[in-house]
Amino acid sequence: MTENRQKVPLVYAGALAVNRVTAHLAVLAVYLVCSGCGYIDEHTAPRKTPSAQRSPEALAADALFWETFHQGRYENIQATLEAETRAYLADPRDVVSAAHIGWLHIWRLSERRRLVEVPATSTDDALLARRYFQEAVDMNPEEARYLGFLATTTLADGSLNKNERVTRRGYRELLQAIAAWPEFNLFTAGYALSARPLHSREFTQALEWQWRDIDACVGGRIDRRNPEFSRYMHLETRTGNKRACWNSEIAPHNFEGFFLNMGDMLLKAGELQTARILYGNAKLSSSYRQWPYRQVLEERLLLIAASANGHPVEPTAASPPLMLESAYSCMACHQQ
Known about the structure:
- There is one protein chain.
- This protein is mainly alpha-helical.
- Helix content is 63%, strand content 0%.
- Helix 6 runs antiparallel to helix 7 and helix 11 (272-282) packs antiparallel against helix 12 (294-308).
């Protein structure tokens, strides 16, 4: 009798435990089903597609955008943002308006050193730029320029908020953008990371991306000890992916700006003579004399000449500063 009395509660306890496990599994199953339904519901929703036609309001905002951008009217960014945002809200499927809003936010943030006092809220421009480039990519995932700018603004978001997950996502997006259009996004990626610490893995990668961009543009491998570019000038084009290597209507001094930036990166790395050759390449452009920032480059060359004549200057203390950290970080390529 004693033995039977002991077994009964044990059996009961075992059954109760089984029931509890079963109950927990049932709850988990319901949770997974509901979560799965939510995931499926979200990811089977129709993709946001761009409008087939653009409104007169959007076209007028575009005209203001290009006038402001190409004339370097930093002080007119807010009014231009207002026009572009108004057009976007009237038609949230206007992919060009979304991208223009993203670019204006990038410009305002990038050249904030123009301001006498930089407000802490200027960092909101990085978040808003990412938001609008995400919209542009959602509507037109084949546009590699949007992919590149989304990646750089995602990196900026991760860096500002010390969010490693977001930073890694931005880096992954950079690699995808490079694969989609190397001639354009190798520069975009390298430029975005050019201000990282000199001996960091990121800066080393950024400089490598700039060399690879030149290789992609010339269809070969340039001599990294003597990267003189005159032998490649006959490759200039306004069509195809390699148009990103040259000046264009959108970026009238893209060629000069590229070599200014890469020279700055080599100057930062202490490779003064290679930097001198890269700066010199900018002078090969037929529009060099019309470039609003040619004096900036001339000052770099004077700095190197002074160093060669026995007046060494710490490369990272060069003035004006690294192109990315300057008040002309966008306009060096885009201002007419």
